[in-house]
Amino acid sequence: MRALLCVEPGKLAVVERSRPSPGPGEVLVRIRRAGVCGTDLHIYEGTHPFLEYPRVIGHELSGEVEETGTGCEIAVGQKVFIIPYLSCGACVACRRGKTNCCQRIAVLGVHIDGGMADYVCVPERNVAAADGVSLDQAAMVEFLAIGAHAVRRASPRKGDRVLVVGAGPIGIGCMIFAKLHGGSVTALDMRQDRLDFCRDVLGVDHTVAAGPDTLEMLSKLTGGDLFETVIDATGKASAMMTGFDYVAHGGTYVLVSVVLDTISFADPKFHAREISLLGSRNATREDFVEVFGAMRDGRVPTEALATHRAPLEDSPARFPEWIKPETGVIKALIEI
Predict the structure, then answer these.
(1) pLDDT tens-place string over residues 251-265
(2) Quick check: 304 pLDDT over 90?
(3) How far apart are the first and last CA of the chain?
(4) 20 to 30 A from 258, CA-CA: which of 21, 127, 167, 237?
(5) Which is it for strands 26-36 and 331-335: parallel, antiparallel or unpaired?
(6) Model confidence pLDDT, tens digit, residues 65-122
(7) Using an 8 Å Cβ cutoff, are 66 and 76 in contact?
């Protein structure tokens, strides 16, 4: 079978690998679509903190069940999306239902080889039926689930002001589900084209272009109160630290970004505002279910999100283009 291998930072190749066979409780999925995530781009750039090279990348995946191992109930031919977080089921996090931050988690395309390939084998519990949506849509459930999980972590009340910092795909997912939860959403980013997309397509309530007077503009926008919920999806340590300034007294700050760096904050301000600081990693099946339901019901603008696509064999040449801001990628899909 073919697979997209990141040999080292800056070097991708389509290589031949042996087709896997499902063991007991596993399914072999014929991959049809793979979304290109910020994680994949970070791997390509060499800036991902949890990765060893070489690695077959890809974890935003949809396809059809090709073969099943013993003990599986799902039917061959079933259209599915994949939940790419393989958890142990036994550690302290898993015992509490937090499989997204399992002590021994293996994420496809990060800790183990992923699914930008003709086939991938996963436990049956890591696939879900994708009836009622297209293959394109099914491949976008995962990144949206990360946004939905971050919003669920924040638990905004209806009418709360929610600031999402960073209007990439994960930030966009946060905005979509913050709106669906009844929040008044403001998008903050340096790129005007992304802010225009958030306003025109997502219907966010306000957009703010980041600059020297960002705090002043955000304060004016909220009558000096700032935001009950702030979610950082920038992937930049400097922005993550600055984000503390945007949180209202009694507010919540959620860090979706992960950076290979140390972040710090001013303790007096943190305590004076009694900020609730939360990390948000991956997503749980509950988040996937929420996203899939919203997508199936037409409440997620998936057609507008899928801006670029290419076949697997062309993808090594496309990554250097897709990583450039001027290309205007929101979500690129690889067709397999």
Answers:
(1) 999 999 888 889 999
(2) yes
(3) 11
(4) 127
(5) antiparallel
(6) 999 999 999 999 999 999 999 999 999 999 999 999 999 999 999 999 999 999 999 9
(7) yes
Q: What is the pLDDT of residues 269-293, one digit of tens each?
A: 999 999 999 999 999 999 999 999 9
Q: Which domains does the chain have, with CATH numbers?
A: 2-139+301-335 (3.90.180.10), 147-279 (3.40.50.720)
Q: Give every strand in the sheet of 184-189, ordered side by side.
A: 206-209, 184-189, 161-165, 227-232, 247-255, 276-279
DSSP percent split of the chain into helix, strand, coil, nearest 5? 35, 30, 35
Q: Which residues contact 28 (CB under 8 A, 6 or more apart)?
A: 20, 21, 22, 65, 66, 67, 68, 119, 120, 121
Q: Read off the pTM.
A: 0.95
User: Is-contact 142 88, C-beta < 8 A?
Assistant: no
Which amino acid is located at 309 in the chain? Answer: R
Cβ contacts of 63 within 8 Å, gap of 6 or more = 29, 30, 31, 32, 33, 79, 80, 82, 135, 336
Question: Residue 68 is which amino acid?
Answer: T
d(CA 333, CA 95): 35
Query: Which has the closest alpha carbon to 149: 335, 336, 289?
Result: 289
Closest CA to 145 of 119, 120, 126: 126
CA-to-CA distance for 262 and 220, rounded, in angstroms? Answer: 31
CB 161 within 8 A of CB 250: no
Nearest CA to 285 out of 171, 123, 155 is that of 123
